[in-house]
Amino acid sequence: MKKEYGTINSGDYESKLLLPKGARSDKDEKLRLLESDAVDNVSVDLENVASGEDFSEDPMFNRKLEHPTSNFDTMIHLLKGNIGTGILAMPDAFRNAGWVVGLFGTMLMGFVCTHCMHMLVACSHELCRRTQKPSMNFPEVVENAFKTGPEAMQRFSKIARTLINIFLCITQLGFCCVYFVFVSANLHDVVKHYFFDISVHWYLLMLLVPMILLNFVKSLKYLTPASLFASILTCSGLIITFFYMLQDLPNTSTVKAFSTWSQLPLYFGTAIYAFEGIGVVLPLENNMKSPQDFGGWTGVLNTGMVIVATLYTAVGFFGYLKYGDQAVLGSVTLLLPPNELLAQSVRLTMAVAIFLSYSLQFYVPFNIVWPWVKAHFHSEHSKRLAEHATRTILVFVTFALAIAIPNLGAVISLVGAFSSSALALIFPPLIEIITFWPDKLGKNNWILWKDIAIVLFGCIGFIVGSYVSLLNILHPDV
């Protein structure tokens, strides 16, 4: 027997867009998560709740969704939200850490990031009960945590929401910048091998106009076929990459077990960039048919993140073991044998896949900036011109950053250390402390001390990682 309840408004750009590149083959499902302003009309089957708990009064389980996602659907989205260009940079991360530190450090990073995702979901549930809202996105969770938290913090609710939006914007523009560099570097290698050699900056320039035109497409409905094609290319590219990495592996004694302390911040930046999927968590959980299956020891989140951490560790370890100190280019695809057609096809297919995925990452910063710009124009004609101008300027910003810093590994490390660490490691424990202050922080306040430790870890990575990454960009030969 099913019960139907009131409607839910997802409200912000995060529930519209923060989804993986080329998510799944169900076009309608993808568009619902990427573009819809509201989630409408579905019933939640409470008989399927394994725990037997009565959720009839819980607003989170009173969601009406037009196309609720199954556990498997959510798992696919979660995997795609965490697997992008970062996975191809993991051999470079292991080079900066050594294979021992990289092996255990990546698993530890995966554990901490997954725990922070659980924190965010738990805070969302608590705040939904307090405010009687069916769901919240990342900025809404932060704002409501401050609003309903300690009195001294309540006046900072709007500032906290704005801060999250700024970091989301910086992160996504950073991703777009990485995409520019990634596509250019891989195209450069293919053309150089078969035809002629010109600077990678020319490839960046040649990509500018196609990128702008691609992002003139307002509706992601028309980009769905391209996204699905990109997903297929990404999967095939990873399979072929593993095929090359696992051939003729040398002994572990041929690579460093431990690297220098000065290189560890670069490892941190790359690893945390790779694990940046926290923006996907709430939109996915908000749209599940059985949201109670998302958490738990064997829930969707843990299962998906175990797979992600295993893949990252495998690519990093075997990539570094295979190529050693050559793994300095920021993408393992650039290390594949240049004289083999199959290897060159991987570079080309991954370049095309990432190019087609740019629009999905671009959607977030545009939806942050556009409402502010739109408010300054009144006629429909002026709004259309302003929208095209805003899209062009934002794409040009990522192009300018890419052409200024064509070092793929350095860009990935900087984006990870500066913005990804803030979103994934600093904000979630702070939100948990504010949400459950003062009497719900465990016996002897162990949750408080645990969260403080994670915040300190994130802050150290944020400061030191950003500093070392900037030095690596300004003085790459030092």
Describe this structure in a few short sentences.
The chain is mainly alpha-helical. It has helices at residues 13-17, 27-35, 71-82, 85-88, 90-97, 99-131, 138-148, 151-154, 157-194, 200-214, 224-245, 264-274, 278-286, 300-323, 341-374, 380-404, 408-436, 446-474. 67% of the residues lie in helices and 0% in strands.
Explained architecture:
- It is a single chain.
- The protein has 478 residues and is mainly alpha-helical.
- The protein starts with 12 loop residues before the first helix and ends with a helix.
- The chain is globular.
- The longest helix is centred in the middle third of the chain and has 38 residues.
- The protein contains 18 helices and no strands.
Radius of gyration: 22 Å
Uncertain spans: 1-56
* Integer average pLDDT: 79
> Which strand-content bin applies to the residues?
under 5%
Distance between the termini: 67 Å
Structural class from helices and strands? mainly alpha
Helical fraction: 55-70%
What order do the helices and strands follow?
HHHHHHHHHHHHHHHHHH
What is the global morphology? Answer: globular
Number of helices: 18
The largest sheet, given as strand count, sense and whether it forms a barrel, is: none
Tally of extended strands? 0
